[in-house]
Design a protein that fits this description.
Elements lengths: L4 H16 L3 H5 L13 E8 L2 E7 L6 E11 L2 E8 L4 E5 L7 E9 L8 E5 L5 H7 L2 E5 L2 E7 L6 E8 L15 E3 L3 E6 L7 E9 L8 E5 L5 E2 L6 E2 L33 E2 L8 E11 L1 E7 L14 E9 L16 E7 L13 H9 L1 E4 L7 E11 L7 E2 L1 E6 L1
Length: about 400
């Protein structure tokens, strides 16, 4: 029987509409529904770990087995569930904030989402990571604040929360700049700045990602006084072995490193010739002797919106002197200069050259900061010695250089 073109279109439309009416849920449902529960897991074994437990088991032989789930409470009233596919015989229950016994109920579940009878196994987690970290916290005063370190042997995602009682009345707050320290490194370290050099009561708590909080460490601390050094008193001391500055119509002078413009446009930045074949130095006269606490380098924003490129510093040294040899021998053989610190800039994302994440750009925009070792003598003259830039050569580009101390 011949059909007209109109009939053909109508039949085609009805076929498509009928197929489209099948929901995703219907398509994903098993062809055969099995209302019988699967067999139970067997040979259950548990190995207690820090804040968690690893559980192994033997699977039932049901052909329509889909997964195994563990149902438990991390603490009274706080329910948790972990699911493992039928292709494995192990799962880990975690999120425990204590070392108390906990009952885990294991269910086998088939493709019809019918669960087996539960099999119970008792676990008793070892000391959670946030408690281990709290036990090892060390706080040491430094210039303008304090450093916090602790061990994190479980490499959990932890937050160290610093607080201060500004009024001395037991009201604990986080003042501006007093941010949490987040890390999952085996050794956690961070520095809190912008604290006044007066005795105040501080508190420190460790929190994990399941919002378990440690007990509180209370300390009375008096940070050492520091201030940003007055750049208006700085000047250039040009020594014979110092870097040759790129001469672009009288621009790129050293004082652009301390003119207060942290994000300049070209060419108002310090820039040396790109033909340099060895580590380059630039010398600054601070006007008087200072003890240094920290430094900051603001890199230049290159074409394309990149910071971790070209002549921006990657590895460099800071040297100090009070009576520099003006004849300018190589700094490594000049006893009038003392190396104060070596700095290595780390790109937060670790991404390849000319690939920069938002966190990379934020870190660079805010400036790369480094602490000086404690106990240094005071110095009037400093030298920045570039060991390597992000291009892998020696020339330097610095938008702004800042020092703190007293």
């Amino acid at each position: 029987m011949r059909i007209s073109r109109l009939q053909y279109y109508i039949y085609t439309f009805l076929f498509i509409a009928t197929f489209a009416g099948c929901t995703r849920e219907a398509l994903n449902k098993p062809i055969v529904t099995n209302s019988n529960p699967p067999g139970i897991v067997s040979n259950v074994q548990a190995v207690n770990q820090n804040g968690k437990a690893a559980i192994t088991y033997s699977l039932p032989t049901d052909r329509d087995l889909l997964y195994v789930k563990a149902v438990y409470e991390t603490s009274p009233g706080v329910k948790a569930q972990v699911v493992a596919s039928r292709y494995t015989n192990t799962l880990t229950v975690d999120g425990f904030g204590d070392t108390l016994p906990h009952t885990i109920r294991l269910y086998a579940v088939n493709t019809s989402e019918v669960s087996s009878a539960p099999v119970e196994v008792a676990v008793q987690p070892l000391t959670p990571g946030y408690i281990l970290a709290r036990r090892s916290i060390q706080v040491a005063v430094t210039f303008g604040g304090f450093t916090i370190t602790c061990n994190n042997p479980t490499k959990d995602n932890l937050a160290i929360i610093p607080m201060v009682d500004t009024a001395g009345k037991g009201a604990w707050v986080q003042t501006v700049g007093m941010d949490n320290i987040y890390s999952n490194d085996s050794l956690i370290s961070g520095t809190i700045r912008n604290q006044p050099s007066i005795a105040r009561n501080y508190a420190f708590v460790v929190r994990d990602k399941w919002l378990h909080y440690s007990d509180t460490l209370f300390l009375t601390l008096t940070p050492w006084f520091e201030q940003m050094l007055d750049k208006s008193k700085w000047s250039t001391l040009t020594l014979p072995n110092d870097a040759t500055i790129l001469n672009n119509g009288g621009w790129c002078y050293p004082y652009y490193m301390w003119d207060g413009d942290y994000h300049p446009t070209w060419p108002r930045t310090y820039f040396t010739v790109e033909s340099a074949t060895k580590p380059q130095t630039v010398t600054i006269d601070l006007g008087s002797k200072h003890t240094f606490s920290r430094l900051q380098v603001n890199p230049y924003l290159e074409v394309g919106g990149y910071y971790y490129v070209r002549g921006n510093p990657k590895d460099f040294e800071i040297w100090g002197s009070n009576s520099p040899n003006l004849s300018g021998p190589d700094i490594l053989s000049d006893p009038t200069w003392t190396k104060l610190t070596t700095c290595h800039v780390v790109k937060p994302s670790g991404s390849p050259y000319q690939t920069e994440t938002a966190s990379d750009k934020t870190a660079a925009y805010n400036g790369w900061q480094f602490d000086f070792p404690v106990g240094l003598s005071g110095y009037r003259y400093i030298r920045i010695r570039s060991l390597s830039n992000w291009q892998g050569s020696y020339f330097m580009c610095i938008s702004e250089f800042t020092l703190w101390g007293n």
